[in-house]
From TrEMBL:
<protein>
    <submittedName>
        <fullName>LAQU0S18e01948g1_1</fullName>
    </submittedName>
</protein>
<feature type="transmembrane region" description="Helical">
    <location>
        <begin position="376"/>
        <end position="400"/>
    </location>
</feature>
<feature type="region of interest" description="Disordered">
    <location>
        <begin position="581"/>
        <end position="617"/>
    </location>
</feature>
<keyword id="KW-0472">Membrane</keyword>
<feature type="transmembrane region" description="Helical">
    <location>
        <begin position="515"/>
        <end position="536"/>
    </location>
</feature>
<feature type="compositionally biased region" description="Polar residues">
    <location>
        <begin position="602"/>
        <end position="617"/>
    </location>
</feature>
<feature type="transmembrane region" description="Helical">
    <location>
        <begin position="480"/>
        <end position="503"/>
    </location>
</feature>
<feature type="transmembrane region" description="Helical">
    <location>
        <begin position="412"/>
        <end position="435"/>
    </location>
</feature>
<feature type="transmembrane region" description="Helical">
    <location>
        <begin position="283"/>
        <end position="304"/>
    </location>
</feature>
<feature type="region of interest" description="Disordered">
    <location>
        <begin position="1"/>
        <end position="27"/>
    </location>
</feature>
<feature type="compositionally biased region" description="Polar residues">
    <location>
        <begin position="581"/>
        <end position="591"/>
    </location>
</feature>
<feature type="transmembrane region" description="Helical">
    <location>
        <begin position="218"/>
        <end position="240"/>
    </location>
</feature>
<keyword id="KW-0812">Transmembrane</keyword>
<dbReference type="GO" id="GO:0022857">
    <property type="term" value="F:transmembrane transporter activity"/>
</dbReference>
<dbReference type="Pfam" id="PF07690">
    <property type="entry name" value="MFS_1"/>
</dbReference>
<keyword id="KW-1133">Transmembrane helix</keyword>
<feature type="transmembrane region" description="Helical">
    <location>
        <begin position="548"/>
        <end position="570"/>
    </location>
</feature>
Length: 617
């Protein structure tokens, strides 16, 4: 992901994007399905969003003009040396996009093909536990659906809590380890943990295994240690930045994300086909998934060459050691007692996990303007509200849908594929077309939110409001409202890429990894709080007013739509110039103040003048 820089700016130090773990897991008839197709797909949209939005807006054109004026950076030299070294390898060892896509496809298919059978078999296991009449025959147990819903809600709440805490703590650490030890060891670690996770899940749902809610919770929480599909995606993006020219990264990331979309949409269908071909054996997809993950580990170990330059690894290790020494200096401080020193040391280590959040509190511009800080904080608030009104509400929504409409595994698989493929179509087809139309109507800005961004954000949030209001008001008996909900939710798929691309405009290009790490922490904390709360609300109201939990997401979406009108467009680049850019105002820029004037115009100059005058005052 690259954005055009002013002349003299250095190429960003592309690091590993810090990761977000989305704390979702299996439910009675669809929580794991929602985990893969909504929560993780939202991160897929977020990961590829900046690339696709900038590509659709034609952001790559201005970069080439500045690249030739810049001296070769350390990162560019490392890339050149790595490509020269890798060119001597055989094609099947050489780091490339095709090998990466094949590797990620193995893992993605293994994850998604076990969605439906895991739901069905886990449901039967819960029925076995709550139906004492048939403890040894879970497939013949007769479920008390309201009781099963409440049981699953409590299980899911505990599981979300565990996965949320683990995911939040690992969000920055796994990204740091990727920078220090390389992308290949992280892929190997992910494969190993994912293999253990699937085997643990299979053990808990075997007919011979006694029912235990805590076994189910812990088995499904093992995958949190791997970072989920989001870690695979983020590590893949880091792999791309290591071995791809900046001008080619947009297309490369888009192709990787297209591979993920295809796997998310087709994985459940492959699992259903495996069950049919094996005469209804729900365990067959797990066998195939184990084969796929084992192949992933073997292929990564033998064929996938480390992409990160050895000097980059050493630099990351040096920074880590320097930071660790600064922490350890607290222990050697003789001015405080031992207990106090140890407490401060542990507190610093914990706070270091949250250090990326500092990137969201922007310093005043060189002219003292706080507009960038306020804009970024509003964008972060929009992201939180968007999560609450989309991913955060889907878990209890699926429970509600399975209870009211009695969805079976076949229809659930169709619904999963519809969500996955639908979001892919919106992001890859409709979103670029929509942006193309907006480009003809408005002018794009490089350093500030523009009318194109605002229209995209407002359209997406309006779609979310309509989707929740429709299912809250319309009370049909055939479940058609679920399709309406899915369609309008899918239309909001370009919200995250637009928001991420807008955030990049205000932040330093040399610390994008920390920026995305901060967003990951905020999103992870949001998912740690709101989905369990909504799930508990549904668990206590499913027999009386099952739709009452939807009120909170509806209010969140309305508030987000209103907040978009508090974002202002600024056309004066000097007003938004960061302190780190103060030395970049060269004589050539002063001599050509209108360079790129097409991108600096704005459809609302009145707002810009007002903000500029207020800032000077």
């Amino acid at each position: 992901m690259t954005e055009s820089l002013p002349a003299g700016d250095q190429e960003p130090n592309e690091g590993s994007p810090l990761l977000r773990q989305n704390p979702l897991g299996p439910d009675l008839e669809g929580l794991r399905a929602v985990d893969v197709t909504n929560a993780e797909l939202e991160y897929v949209v977020e990961s590829t969003g900046v690339a696709l939005v900038e590509e659709a807006m034609g952001n790559g054109s201005s970069q080439q003009s500045t690249a030739t004026d810049e001296p070769e950076t350390e990162e560019a030299r490392w890339l050149r040396e790595s490509k020269l070294k890798h060119s001597k390898l055989a094609w099947y060892y050489r780091p490339s996009l095709s090998l990466l896509c094949f590797t990620v496809a193995l893992m993605s298919l293994a994850e998604t093909m076990v969605v439906s059978p895991s739901i069905i078999l886990t449901t039967q296991k819960v029925c076995q536990g709550i139906s004492p009449g048939s403890p040894s025959s879970p497939d013949k147990a007769r479920c008390d659906m309201p009781m099963a819903q409440s049981t699953f809600s409590s299980i899911q709440s505990a599981q979300m809590l565990i996965q949320g805490i683990v995911g939040t703590l690992l969000a920055g650490k796994l990204g740091e380890l990727s920078d220090r030890f390389g992308r290949k060891p992280i892929f190997q670690y992910v494969g190993f943990v994912r293999l253990v996770s699937i085997l643990a899940i299979v053990y808990t749902i075997l007919p011979s295994t006694p029912y235990s809610r805590w076994k189910i919770i812990l088995a499904n929480s093992v995958q949190a240690l791997s970072g989920g599909l989001m870690l695979t995606i983020a590590n893949g993006n880091s792999y791309i930045t290591d071995c791809t020219e900046p001008k080619d990264r947009t297309i490369a990331i888009s192709m990787l994300m297209s591979t993920i979309y295809a796997c998310i949409g087709t994985g459940p269908l492959i699992g259903s086909a495996a069950i049919k071909l094996s005469s209804g054996n729900n365990y067959m997809p797990f066998v195939i998934a184990v084969v796929f993950i084992t192949s992933f580990i073997i292929f990564t170990t033998i064929f996938l060459t480390e992409s990160r330059h050895i000097n980059a690894l050493r630099q990351s290790q040096t920074k880590f050691r320097d930071r660790r020494r600064s922490f350890e200096s607290v222990l050697t401080n003789s001015s405080s007692i031992s207990v106090t020193r140890h407490g401060r040391y542990q507190a610093l280590k914990i706070l270091d996990l949250l250090s990326p959040l500092k990137k969201l509190w922007l310093p005043p511009s060189v002219h003292g303007s706080l507009i960038p800080r306020y804009t970024v904080l509003i964008l972060v608030a929009l992201d939180v509200l968007f999560i609450i009104s989309t991913t955060g509400m889907v878990v209890p929504l699926v429970l509600y849908a399975t209870y009211k409409y009695r969805l079976d595994s076949v229809h659930l698989g169709y619904f999963i594929s519809f969500i996955g493929i639908g979001r892919a179509i919106v992001l890859l087809v409709l979103s670029p077309l929509f942006l193309h139309v907006l480009k003809k109507m408005y002018t794009r800005l490089d350093n500030s939110i523009d009318s194109i961004d605002l229209m995209s954000l407002r359209t997406a949030m309006f779609s979310v409001v309509v989707s929740i209001a429709a299912i809250l008001v319309w009370d049909d008996t055939r479940g058609l409202i679920l399709l309406v909900f899915a369609v309008f939710q899918n239309l909001s798929a370009f919200f995250s890429p637009t928001l991420q691309a807008t955030l990049v405009k205000y932040c330093s290009k040399s610390s994008l990894g920390e920026l995305f790490g901060a967003i990951a922490l905020v999103r992870s904390a949001t998912m740690l709080v709101f989905p369990p709360v909504l799930l508990l609300v549904y668990a206590h109201t499913n027999t009386t007013k099952p739709k009452i939990f939807m009120i909170v997401p509806l209010l969140a979406s309305i508030l987000a739509f209103v907040l978009t009108f508090m974002l202002h467009i600024v056309t004066d680049p000097e007003l938004l110039r960061r302190p780190s850019q103060a030395s970049l105002a060269t004589s050539s820029q002063i001599a050509h103040p209108n360079k790129g004037s097409k991108d600096q115009r704005m459809s609302t100059p009145r707002t810009s003048r007002k903000l500029s005058s207020n800032n000077r005052g």
